[in-house]
Amino acid sequence: MEEANQIVAQTLCMLKEYIVPGVNTLYLDQLAEKYARKSNAIPAFKGYRGFPGSLCVSVNEQVVHGIPSRKVILKDGDILSIDFGVKYKGYYGDAAITVPVGSISDNAEDLLKTTRESLYLAIEKVVVGNRISDISHAVQQHVEEKGYSVVRQFVGHGIGQNLHESPEIPNYKRTGRSPKLLPGMVLAIEPMVNIGTYEVKILKDGWTVVTADKTLSAHFEHSVAVTEDGPLILSNGL
Ligand code: MG
User: Given this structure, which CATH class describes domain 2-233?
Assistant: First the structure.
């Protein structure tokens, strides 16, 4: 799983330098797919429940699951979330980052910073004996303290020989008791954070998730193993 996730991390790192004003999101998708295949990995999202791309590309108010398109051309001041997954030797890797396009506003910069921080605070809770709710709480507390909101409708997930496995990893506190963390579990933790309301809508393309109030949204994700020695970030290096 570490090998699968390292291919994902390397792909995302490689893409960063291509995220500049004027580039279209289909080009990024093609770069990602080529890189993964060259690494003998299979892009995991392509064809997943009919998703048309290898890379999810979500611009500005798009939260997740944006479809790559030649018609979507990045411009200075945008923020772009790129989410990538592969299957390698039978196991899955999954990670995401949100990247500035050119120079972005202070508000956008702070949203990215806060979302990334919330992911790392959540990862600190990946300790044997803790519960999924400890992860959820860490994200929610940090995000709401800064005045932002966490998306409810989409959540993180277990990952392994399937892209999405149990347990669900919400980024907000749910009622009831959540599963305990056990050594060997691997968790895809992925805070999705909005400047405005946590409510989202799905566009007519059936995939693209946008904030209901059109405010900016950011997304960071790591696949993290639970070990006796603490969290092991398999997709490290982003
Ligand atoms: Mg994921």
Answer: alpha beta
Positions of the chain with pLDDT lower than 50, given as ranges: none
Residue ranges per domain, the chain?
A: 2-233
Concatenated DSSP letters for 216-234?
-EEE-BEEEEEETTEEEET
Q: What is the pTM of this model?
A: 0.98
Q: Name the phi and psi angles at 62, rounded to 5.
A: -75, 130
Length of the chain: 238
Ligand 1 centroid – CA 147 distance (Å): 24
Tokens matching residue 151: 């998306």
Query: Which residue spans within 71-199 are E strands per DSSP?
Result: 79-88, 91-100, 149-150, 156-158, 165-169, 186-189, 192-194
Distance of CA 19 to the CA centre of its chain: 17
Q: What's the gap in Å between 188 CA and the centre of ligand 1?
A: 6
Q: How far is the CA of 221 from the centre of ligand 1 (A)?
A: 7
**How many other β-carbons are positioned within 10 Å of the β-carbon of residue 167?**
17
208 Cα to the center of ligand 1, angstroms: 15
* Rounded distance from Cα 174 to ligand 1 centre (Å): 19
pLDDT digits (tens, 9 = 90+) for 4-60: 999 999 999 999 999 999 999 999 999 999 999 999 999 999 999 999 999 999 999
